[in-house]
Amino acid sequence: MVSGVGEGLGKVEVKLRWDPSPYGEPPRHLDIIAATYAADDPHGRPVYVVHYESRSPDGTINMSRHSETGMGFGFVEAMVLEFDRLAPVYGRVVVGVAIHQDRGPRTFADISNAGVVVVEGYQQLLVDDFSQVADATAATVAEFSRDASGAWQFREMVRGFDADPVLFAAEMGSPCQ
Q1: What's the distance, CA 122 to chain centroid?
Q2: d(Cα 25, Cα 96) in Å, to the nearest integer?
Q3: For residue range 124-151, what is the model confidence (pLDDT) as tens digits?
């Protein structure tokens, strides 16, 4: 599914929710990750990656909220992507979610009430609960790319990976098999 209205996407927000760990268990930590690719190599290596400890060099992609435990109060982690300000040298951005694996392997099936929403203003572009990638430790959720006119478009891209956050960031933009 590709969507975009008029001149393409402007400011988009990706929001993530999950419930905290059951009492007595270590915290469960999920992160939103965005990988930005060059216009002349949209499936190559990311030019830069944005996650909870970073932002894009020009400030067009950044975390506006971060949680290490969930909280159970709705969407507790959020990333803002300002496509209307992103330089023309970038042609593709892939956004995903990774589960920290520092306390043993966890999959989305192990995370209670996990969900992601992608919105532009009041328009929901994607709502997902990770059930289709329940056995994965990380998943892409959205792909944004420039069309021939230079306008940014959205494509749903829910795809599971079996990788820790570092490896996932390197391979999340690979072409679908």
Answers
A1: 19
A2: 25
A3: 999 999 999 999 999 999 999 999 999 9
